[in-house]
UniProtKB/TrEMBL annotation, chain A:
CDD domains: MPN_like (cd08070)
Highest taxon listed in the record's lineage: Bacteria
Keywords: Hydrolase, Metal-binding, Metalloprotease, Protease, Zinc
Record-linked Pfam families: Prok-JAB
GO biological process, any: proteolysis
SMART domains: JAB_MPN (SM00232)
GO MF assignments: metalloexopeptidase activity; zinc ion binding
Name of this protein: M67 family peptidase
InterPro entries assigned: JAB_dom_prok, JAMM/MPN+_dom, MPN, VirAsm_ModProt
TrEMBL record, chain B:
UniProt-listed InterPro entries: Beta-grasp_dom_sf, MoaD_arc-typ, Mopterin_synth/thiamin_S_b, Sulfur_Carrier/Prot_Modifier, ThiS/MoaD-like
Species of provenance: Nonomuraea deserti
Protein name as it appears in the record: MoaD/ThiS family protein
Signal peptide, first to last residue: none
């Protein structure tokens, strides 16, 4: 299960809306599995169908997390024309075994789908999301 | 000549859980071969058909080796090499 503050969840959705129709992506860093620090990342691909963290930005952010004894608790990205379910490419490049992979879909103008998954060795497991007020 | 190699979570099963290991080599290519002799199986996760895998980022100190010389990048004693899987998807 992913427990996340409503405030952080709202920030993910706002980022996804702002970058629509391109995919938005980012990280929430934290300790002990608790998502705390919102880090929107640049989508180096600037694409409606693909995302990739900029390699130098990723290096700086991962180094900073290491220095602060944090880990990438949440890795999020948006789907802008399809549902919030991991695509085949999402599964093949999933490389943080301890992260919650959050997907939001902005295909609908008013409703937002917000879902979370574990992706381990090619297997997708959806998990419950609890929003903390 | 010792070079520190920082290992991402997903590859620590090759290093008995170690976050960083030492290896040797005058170039990144040599370093990875040396790493393979100490941690069998790891090379295949980094290199494919003679090039760095597309979705693996390797940094020499603070630079992405793609902007240096790829596998031919020369290394010096005391350098730090960091491996990070790219965060990507569709």
């Amino acid at each position: 299960m992913l427990s996340i503050s409503q405030e952080l969840a709202d920030k993910i959705v706002a980022h996804a809306r702002a970058d629509h129709p391109d995919e938005a992506c980012g990280v929430i860093a934290g300790r002990g599995g608790v998502p705390e620090r919102f880090i929107p990342m640049e989508n180096a691909e600037r694409s409606p169908t693909f995302y990739r963290f900029d390699s130098m930005e990723q290096f700086r952010v991962w180094k900073e997390m290491d220095e602060r004894d944090e880990e990438p608790v949440v890795i999020y990205h948006s789907h802008t024309a399809t549902e919030a379910y991991p695509s085949r490419t999402d599964v093949s490049y999933a490389s943080e075994p301890n992260a919650h992979y959050v997907l939001v879909s902005t295909k609908d103008d008013t409703e937002v789908e917000f879902r979370s998954y574990r992706i381990l060795e090619g297997v997708i497991t959806e998990e419950e999301v609890r929003f903390i007020p | 000549m010792a070079i520190e190699v920082r290992i991402p979570t997903i590859l620590r099963n090759y290093t008995d859980g170690a976050k960083a290991v030492d290896a040797e080599g005058a170039t990144l290519d040599e370093l990875i071969s040396n790493l393979e002799s100490r941690h069998p199986g790891i090379k295949d996760r980094l290199v494919d058909q003679g090039s760095l895998r597309r979705f693996v980022n390797v940094y020499l100190n603070d630079e992405d080796v793609r902007f240096l010389g790829g596998l031919g990048t020369p290394l010096s004693d005391g350098d730090t090499v960091t491996v990070l899987p790219a965060v990507a998807g569709g």
